Amino acid sequence: MLAPALWVCAGMFPLCAFPQDVYRLQYQTDIPLGAVGLGTATASFVIGMKASKPTPEQVQALDKQDIWVIDRHATQRWSPPAAIASDVFLYTGIAMPALLFINKNVRREKYVSLMYAETLLMTMGVTNIVKVLTKRYRPFAYNPAVAMDKRTEKDARKSFFSGHTSLTASASFFMARVYCDLNPDSRLKPLVWTSAALLPAIVGMLRYLAGKHYPTDILAGYVTGAGIGFLVPYLHKKKELRP
User: What's the burial of 4, exposed, middle or buried (CB within 10 Å: 0-12/13-18/19+)?
Assistant: First the structure.
């Protein structure tokens, strides 16, 4: 894949080292971030456990004409292979930030791993709480070609917004933000940001083709994940080093 190859190559370039740490922990930053992540993750788990499955009668009563026109065509999509491919890209994306530690400037930073844990926890928490509160039916729930037992699973009402897209976006944008913060003179920065933007877009397209999400689900997931992945390193960056 492009992104892993990019980061392996990036570690081979001679890059300038900082005379001081770039990131630091702060109570006013880490306590709210941790509270939001842990709180939303816990709340979504409790609410999700109490949620009931949709009944066949509820599913049969669904009318795709009630869906916003730009989302309606998603109800015609159903592809298990695309769903599997999206899983592969998701797990690859989540694991990719480990490649940051090839770079010497990243290795000398104390808090990169902790920041990434905060990023993932917050993304998962926010994504899941929105899913269980909105209870939006996935596109495949409207598709009569899909088996009824699939359309009546709990997961069938967790469409908004795309968790695969939000998690991949948070991981890729976190990786790009940290790399560029710690290697400001790198010639690879344009390629780094391009790769960060493309990976979650690919995941989002696969989720659409799989019949798992509407375009608006994917867009919301992309923006949320990218925002969290970008902001967590920024909020930890020393104020005197911020642009």
Answer: middle
20-72 tens-digit pLDDT: 689 998 888 899 999 999 999 999 999 999 999 999 999 999 999 999 999 99
**CB neighbourhood size of 227 (10 A):** 16
Buried b (16+ CB within 10 A) or exposed e, 97-112: bebbeebebbeebebb
- Among residues 123, 124, 158, which one has the least CA distance to residue 140? 158
* CA 21 to the chain's CA centroid: 27
Map residue 237 onto helix, strand or coil. strand
Q: Which residues are bridge partners to 23 per DSSP?
A: 237
The pTM for the full model equals: 0.89
The conformation of residue 162, written as its DSSP 8-state character, comes to -
Find the angle CA(153)-CA(159)-CA(162) to the nearest 5 degrees. 125
CB 25, CB 111: distance < 8 Å: yes
